[in-house]
Amino acid sequence: MLRIERITKQFGxxxxxxxxxxxxEDGSIMGLIGQNGAGKTTTFRMILDFIxxxxxxxxxxxxxxxxxxxxxxxxxxxxxxxxQKMTVEEQILYFAELHGMKxxxxxxxLVTWMxxxxxxGKITDKVQTLSKGNAQKVQFIATLIHRPxxxxxxxxxxxxxxxxxxLLMNEIKTLKENGAAIIFSSHNMSGVELLSDNxxxxxxxxxxxxxxxxxxxxxxGRTQVYVESELSDTTxxxxxxxxxxxxxxxxxxxxxxxxxxxxDIFKKVSETGYVQAFVxxxxxxxxxxxxxxxxxV
Length: 297
Hints:
It is built from eleven helices and 14 strands. With 297 residues, the protein is α/β, with parallel strands linked by helices. It has a six-stranded mixed sheet with strand order 6-7-8-3-9-10, with helices on both faces.
């Protein structure tokens, strides 16, 4: 378990991280989100002891993060670090040996992971011959080849298409199910929502939201209604508490003043006895993110 207690980091007159508290349990995934410059990467670097915090405490299973502890950490940096002129095999075995793996064992793991992640290429190919997406998957393999019990993933899905993003997400979920503690950052809010158990949102180094995903969303109330109905916008707009209506796919998304308005909308659209689609839900994580960023300027 990772525990962060009131860590602060300042660069000159800028506070990059301000009294951050965070816990990442074994077998759970923490999504760390925020605008560029919010403090996410600085937090990762302090966890890994690349830079020292000015104050506060960071522990893994109650102990400081020593070099021995780092052997069990997998880190995927936002700035990818593959050596272009090395082969995939040379690259991965090098990283694996740094984490104490035997070459033969690492080579077998590499072949398995190449197949699992559907990497187009051979282990004898040079990294520079791979497509951007395949190189990213190789970087992912380098991060977890040594079977880490704690993973830090900084923007792991950047540049990947939806199919490969889903592929990596499934493997991250499997690592979680096997007991790993995982913390990752992403600008893809739908991905964060799908993958995370808990969330920490930073704004200028400060926590503006923290907790489990569903708890955070429900905190904002079920103030959105998606409906597919023959009723006109004019009829729907006349219902007290309807704020805005926007077309979405085959239906419309209605923003309402409070949850009770949903009952009135349902009553109206079901007068004919048949409702094609009706879903009342809290705002998406993307909408919450935009709202919180706008409010905490």
